[in-house]
Structures are given as structure tokens and as C-alpha cells.
Specification:
The complex is a heterodimer of chains A (243) and B (208). With 243 residues, chain A is α/β, with parallel strands linked by helices. Chain A has a single domain, classed as 3-Layer(aba) Sandwich (Rossmann fold), CATH 3.40.50.300. Helices cover 34% and strands 26% of the residues of chain A. Chain A is globular, with a radius of gyration of 18 Å. Chain B has two domains: 87 residues, Winged helix-like DNA-binding domain superfamily/Winged helix DNA-binding domain (Arc Repressor Mutant, subunit A), CATH 1.10.10; 84 residues. Helices cover 63% and strands 4% of the residues of chain B. In chain B, strands 1-3-2 form a three-stranded antiparallel β-sheet. In chain B, α2 crosses α3. The radius of gyration of chain B is 25 Å and the shape is elongated. At the A-B interface, α7, β9 and β10 of A face α7 and α8 of B.
């Protein structure tokens, strides 16, 4: 058994202190393996976005431990944590967060260039990632010249480009219609099938149901889960390994 | 009336015999609505009786063939372009009734009832997505079947959304007015069924 990609061990997050303390996340334990997509569902205020932020080291837990590929995030220096976030984790948000003054391919190449890749090598990888999300031919477009669905696919390409293994997605389909949302989910699913691990926050039940496991949160606690009875991979194992 | 109109619409493309019609219907609906031949022939008999279809006189291969009439064509157009029962009839969903009753029962954890149904619905959606995945992997894509699956996804999804909505509304009601009223009431009519004269038309409606 290899080390799980993501381990959340009894993590809690408390905002404020004393009488006004709010326990946003309350002793949640969760693992995400490679090749597994896990969805978090719950009403607003249930703590699902906080769990995602904790998983990506964007905020640190009040108690408990977050491990990515066996490394305890709390034990890493700020520099090593930043490097782990750049190299291992891809974030996808509802608002795309693309740089408006950069083209699609420049946006996708940006994290690699920040990580010290040569511009040429980064662009090659970025083009491949854009082809994967079915945007070949639109590499030179600026975000303003792309539709919402296309922008989100650029954001996905940026999240999966290079060696990234852990994809953390917070309402990635929130601003899309159902047909475009389904395409975005299919791409996420395909990347997971090819060996990445994914943690998806969504309030849309149909999209959550593309996950192998759906974890239900209420008041910061994991109260229940639904494990898919059949594998949901969009391709055979042979195809997955060839990607 | 989907079968009757579906068969009639297919006949609009050309004369068919009964078994052929059954196969055409099933293929076009992605196998989601299997028919038996006897049902097809009894439907055809009624279509003939109503003047929408005639039996073809030419029987080259020995099988009875059916042909659509002009009245039949008009009926197909009416079916396709005006919303009928499928748009107005909302099937009785037992879930709201179950939750409404659960709310009145002391000691019932309504949130757990809601969650049990939500988990089951998500599992159903996962199964539907697995079927969609099978469809994407198959050699021939079948848009009709895919849309049928999508319709099931939307139906189950809306049930989950209703459960989310109900959960939030119940939680707010409990916060604002404490425990919800429950227990048997003594201001309801006494023994037995009310006499016919006391029943309201609404009662009769509800009983149907």
C-alpha cells in the first residue's frame, strides 16, 4: 500500500477565541488516494471550503495534522510549503482566477515558470495541458476573449499542468451551465483516472456523484458518506496509464 | 399516452408491421421503455379504431402493415408541439409526505431522515453516472439514451435540492420557534370517519 496522497487526521479549525470562538471544522479525518476523487457536500457554513483550504496548506489547522504524500505540512518551512503547493497541488476555484493580461497558454505556464522551468519547456507543457482540456487552437486568447466554460477549462489546465498530483477544486462548476459543468467534471475525472487525487467541494449533487466517495459535512463534522458501488472511471485502466 | 403517440409518430416515417414498430420504438428510446408485441397490436387496434392509422391492403410478405392517416399526422404534430399530460401531471412524490409526518412525531431525528434519503439519492446519481460512463465508452453513441439518463439525473438532483432546502427550512423553524408542534390534537373531529355531509370537496379530491 503506497502512502495516501492526502491525509487529514482529526483536523479542527477554530476561528476567534473564548465565547466568540467558531469551530468551523471539528475533528475531520479523511484520506484521498491516487486515482480517487472525493467530494465534500454540505450547506454553506458546514466547513467544506475550510477543509479544502486546510488540505492545500492555505490555512493551518488549530489541531490535528495534514499530510501530503507523507509530509506533515506543519513540519515544513514556509519555503518548502510554498514549493509543495506550486509543484504538487493544483487549485481550481469558482472564479477561475486567471491573470487577465496573460494569454491562455501564459496563464497555464505561469506556475511552472515560477517554479524555475524555462519559458520554452513551460509553454510546451502548457500547450499539452490545454489540449487535454480540449482548448487546442485557443492558446493565444486572453481570458476576456473566452467563454466562462473555456476560462474554467484554462483554470483546470493550470491546475493539472506539470507534475501536479493533488487537485483541490472549490465549486469549479459554480458559474457554469449544466452542460459545461459536466464537461469540466469529466476533465477532472479523467485526470484523476490517470493517477491524480482529487478533492472536490460542490453543492451540486449531480456533479458530486462523479466522485468515488461523497462525504457529507454538517456544522464542521463529517456526518455520513456515500461510496460508489461501481467504478466511475471514464476510461479503462490501460488507457489511463497511457496518459 | 407516450407509447400510443410514439408508435404513431414512427408510423409517420412509413408503413410498418407490429414487430418492426416495437423494435423501432425501443431503439429510439434507448431501450429504456421495453414493449411487448401484444401491447403494440392492441395499441394499433385502437389507433385504427380512432381513424389515426389504417391497415395496409398490400401484404407482400404476409405480415400486416399499418399506415398513418392524415388525421394521424395532425395528431402527431399536436403531440409534438403542445404540452400534454407529461407537462402538467406531477407524479405523487411520497417523500414530502414522509418528512411532514416525521416532523410531527416526537423523538424522530428528522435531520437523520433527510440525510438517509439524501445519501440514497446520491448513490442513485453515482449509479446513473456509471451508466453514463458506460455510454461514453461504448462504440456507438446513443443520444436518446443519454438524454433519458440525463432526465433521471435532473429528477434525482432536484430531490436532493429539495432535501437541502427542507433541511435548512426545518433548522430555521426550530431555531426561531424551538421544538415544532407535535403530539395528537384533541380539536380534530371525534370517533370514526366524518359523515358524508361533513366531508369537504377537498377531502374527496385528496382521497382520489
Amino acid at each position: 500500500m503506497s502512502t495516501p496522497l492526502l491525509v487529514l487526521d482529526e483536523i479542527s479549525k477554530v476561528y476567534g477565541s473564548g465565547d466568540t470562538a467558531v469551530r468551523a471544522v471539528d475533528a475531520i479525518s479523511l484520506t484521498v488516494e491516487r486515482g480517487e476523487l472525493v467530494a465534500l457536500m454540505g450547506t454553506s457554513g458546514s466547513g467544506k471550503s475550510t477543509v479544502l483550504a486546510l488540505s492545500g496548506g492555505l490555512t493551518s489547522p488549530t489541531s490535528g495534522e495534514v499530510q501530503i504524500d507523507g509530509a506533515n505540512l506543519a513540519a515544513l518551512s514556509a519555503r518548502r510549503l510554498a514549493r509543495l503547493r506550486r509543484r504538487t497541488i493544483g487549485f481550481i476555484f469558482q472564479e477561475y482566477n486567471l491573470v487577465p493580461s496573460l494569454t491562455a497558454v501564459e496563464n497555464v505556464a505561469l506556475p511552472l515558470e515560477l517554479d524555475g522551468w524555462s519559458v520554452g519547456r513551460a509553454r510546451v507543457a502548457a500547450r499539452e495541458a490545454l489540449t487535454l482540456v480540449e482548448l487546442a487552437g485557443l492558446e493565444a486568447r486572453y481570458p476576456a476573449d473566452l467563454s466562462g466554460g473555456q476560462r474554467q477549462r484554462v483554470a483546470i489546465a493550470r491546475a493539472v499542468v506539470g507534475p501536479r498530483e493533488l487537485i483541490l477544486a472549490d465549486e469549479p462548476t459554480g458559474a457554469l451551465d449544466s452542460e459545461n459543468g459536466e464537461r469540466v467534471l469529466a476533465l477532472l475525472r479523467r485526470r484523476v483516472d490517470a493517477g491524480a487525487g482529487g478533492l472536490l467541494v460542490t453543492h451540486d449533487p449531480a456533479f458530486a456523484a462523479w466522485a468515488d466517495r461523497v462525504v457529507f459535512l454538517r456544522d464542521g463534522r463529517a456526518i455520513d458518506e456515500s461510496q460508489s458501488q461501481r467504478p466511475l472511471t471514464t476510461q479503462g485502466a490501460a488507457e489511463a496509464s497511457s496518459l | 399516452m407516450t407509447v400510443r403517440h410514439g408508435l404513431l409518430a414512427i408510423l409517420g416515417e412509413g408503413a410498418c408491421h407490429g414487430y418492426q414498430l416495437k423494435q423501432e420504438f425501443e431503439v429510439r428510446t434507448g431501450g429504456s421503455w421495453p414493449l411487448n408485441v401484444a401491447q403494440v397490436y392492441s395499441t394499433l387496434d385502437r389507433l385504427v379504431r380512432d381513424g389515426l392509422v389504417i391497415e395496409d391492403s398490400a401484404r407482400s410478405d404476409g405480415a400486416r402493415r399499418y399506415r398513418i392517416t392524415e388525421v394521424g399526422r395532425a395528431e402527431v404534430a399536436r403531440w409534438l408541439y403542445s404540452p400534454g399530460v407529461e407537462a402538467s401531471a406531477v407524479g405523487r412524490d411520497e417523500l414530502p409526505t414522509k418528512i411532514a409526518i416525521a416532523l410531527t412525531l416526537p423523538g424522530t431525528d428528522v435531520a437523520a431522515t433527510v440525510q438517509a434519503h439524501r445519501r440514497a439519492a446520491i448513490a442513485q446519481l453515482q449509479e446513473l453516472n456509471a451508466l453514463k460512463r458506460d455510454e461514453h465508452r461504448s462504440e456507438v453513441s446513443d443520444l436518446g439514451w443519454e438524454l433519458t439518463l440525463d432526465a433521471a439525473v435532473f429528477a434525482v438532483k432536484s430531490r436532493v435540492q429539495w432535501l437541502d432546502h427542507a433541511e435548512a427550512k426545518i433548522a430555521r423553524a426550530q431555531r426561531e420557534s424551538g421544538a415544532l408542534p407535535y403530539g395528537l390534537r384533541d380539536d380534530l373531529p371525534g370517533r370514526g370517519r366524518p359523515r358524508a355531509a361533513e366531508r369537504t370537496p377537498g377531502d374527496a379530491e385528496a382521497r382520489r
